[in-house]
Amino acid sequence: MWTKTLGALCVAIPLVVGGCGDDTKPTTPAGSTGGGTTTPPAATVTVADAQKLLDQATQYIKDNKLELADKAIKQLEDAKPKLPAEYGPKIDHLRTAFNAATASGALGTPKAP
Questions:
Q1: Is residue 113 helix, strand or coil?
Q2: pTM of the prediction?
Q3: Where are the domains of the chain?
Q4: CA 29 to CA 32: how far, in whole Å?
């Protein structure tokens, strides 16, 4: 099971943080406008990082930045087993909100960068 998880992280994480195994220098997600925020690799997500990712993903959904929201949610889902139990429902709720936003198109047209 860990082999699959680590293998998936080595494929997914470079897209988000720019390298597998390099958890010393997190970067902003691709396509982000910056703003001084960083996204840690899923293997090192702390409770504070998880809350920050939850807040970012929520804002990304509101801003119709669905690709960034999906990346943040995937990172949270990967880190979910290492987080306190109360984060599970929060992450699940965020995924449900994301799925509803993408299915309904209720957020309107994507905003220009």
A1: coil
A2: 0.56
A3: 2-104
A4: 6
